[in-house]
């Protein structure tokens, strides 16, 4: 058996071992199968982790486990309108669930964040669920499932939850810290890129899968409008390249009212030193977060790669992001593809942003650690922009090492040469990420399962923040 075949075989075997069963049926995969350390919640099936396994199963034509997962998590989705702040809001999908067997009965125990370390909210779960449903329908043509009443209601509930008007006037989604893959405090509260991209892809999916009749019509219209505003906002204001950096560097500040250039009041002094040296001439990326007086200039890989794959980034921007990855290879890919974000927060920044979190020390875990699971999105993005050779290069770096090291969750160090200090071994999404990357390169059609076509942004009106006229008339005598 050659090296590649033996690697694939051992990965498949490991993925198989992680499958969990409910009432005798396969319903998900464990986060990790590492018997040498405490389980914590790594013996759960995480929605975001299972998504990677599910894409592998679907690429292999194994659809049953994905269908079961979709049905089971839909049943777990919070169904009631809540006024009680201690209950998950209607529409929320669990971060994870586990199965315990007591007196010969399988018990399902979901976690909506109420047990999670630091009690973080899984905002991304409902988005991954929608993306999986779309991929499942693509592989099976089983539109009946997506069109069934419970699934249609489930999709509407997700839209109810995230299209609700809130306290701010932005098309992006305002979320608390740690509500996605970075599920710890890392200064990623507000409007993190990864959530915005998943939100965008989820809206496009909902529009595709909702039946255009009755109640759903108004959901489709609302999704349509939001898709446009969101795409415009992210492409316009999250985008950073040398030209844009020059504009920000010379921004006027404290501008009031409509039609101003620096409408979020970003102070040029907030441009970090590393950036002006690091940003290549050819290339660009979407910044990590954007809100009032705040631009988080860190490069977040999952958000940028997903933006390419889902076409939230325009075609030209997608090319530029891949150019940047290629030119900053030694920082972003290094010895273990690929850094979750760049650069790491250090010193006082680390203390303040993480709350002195020792699991997130500089160049470790979420704070600049290297996560092999990202290989699959790197492969998908490289395929999408017509540069599969970049993914081949990354896989060649990772593959020997990750199997020798027993598929670690993450690596530490600027070059990603140390197995993460607290990394689990036999981490399922490391295994599935490798398999998905391989499958994407072997058969480019697999990209259809996760990718979206570029859709031109058609704005029917100006962004609200720009267009508010600023006056109202009331009659105090009424
Ligand atoms: C860690 C990761 C999270 C993942 C979980 C299970 O908490 O930060 O993204 O879902 O482990 O693998």
Structural features, described:
The chain has 478 residues and is mostly helical. It is built from 18 helices and 13 strands. It has helices at residues 3-17, 47-59, 64-76, 124-140, 143-147, 149-163, 193-209, 216-238, 242-249, 273-278, 301-309, 315-327, 329-332, 347-354, 375-384, 388-404, 428-442, 464-467; strands at residues 19-22, 25-29, 45-46, 96-102, 105-111, 239-241, 284-286, 289-291, 294-296, 299-300, 341-342, 411-412, 418-419. The strands form six sheets. It has a three-stranded antiparallel β-sheet. A two-stranded antiparallel ribbon has the order 1-2. The longest helix has 23 residues, at 216-238. The radius of gyration is 22 Å and the shape is globular. The termini are far apart. The model has no long low-confidence stretch (mean pLDDT 95).
What's the tally of helices?
A: 18
Mean pLDDT: 95
Structural class: mainly alpha
Q: Ends: how far apart? A: 85 Å
Beta content comes to 5-15%
Low-confidence segments, given as residue ranges, are none
Helix content estimate: 40-55%
Number of strands: 13
* Biggest beta sheet summary: 3 strands, antiparallel
Mass-distribution shape: globular
